[in-house]
Amino acid sequence: MLEIKEVSYCYQQGKPVVDNVSLTVEPGEFVAIAGRNGSGKTTLTRLIMSLIKPANGQIMLNGVDTSRQSPGDIARHVGYVFQNPDSQIFRDTVASETAYGPEQLGFTAQEITASVAEALERTGLTALADAYPRNLSRGQKQRVAIASALAMKPDILILDEPTSGQDAAEKENLMRILTDLNGQGKTIILVTHDMDILARFTKRAVVMASGVKVFDGTVTELFGQNANVQKWGLREPAIMNVSRNLTKYGISPELTAAEFSRQIIGMLQGGRA
Amino acid sequence: MKAISFENFSYAYPKSKVVLDKLCFDVKKGSFTAIVGPSGAGKTTLCMAAAGVVPHYFGGRSAGSVVVQGVRTMDSTMGELAKGVALVLEDYESQLVAMTVEEEVAFGLENACVDPKLISSMVQETLQLVGLAGREQQEVGGLSGGQKQRLALAGALVTKPEILILDEPASALDPEGAAELYGLLGRLNKQGMTIMVVEHEIARVLPHIDQLVLLLNGSIAVVDQPEAALRKMNAEGLFQEAIPPLLELRFLLEKSGCRFGTWRCEADAVRELSAALKEAEEVSQSA
Question: Containing domain of residue A140, as a range?
Answer without folding.
Answer: 2-234
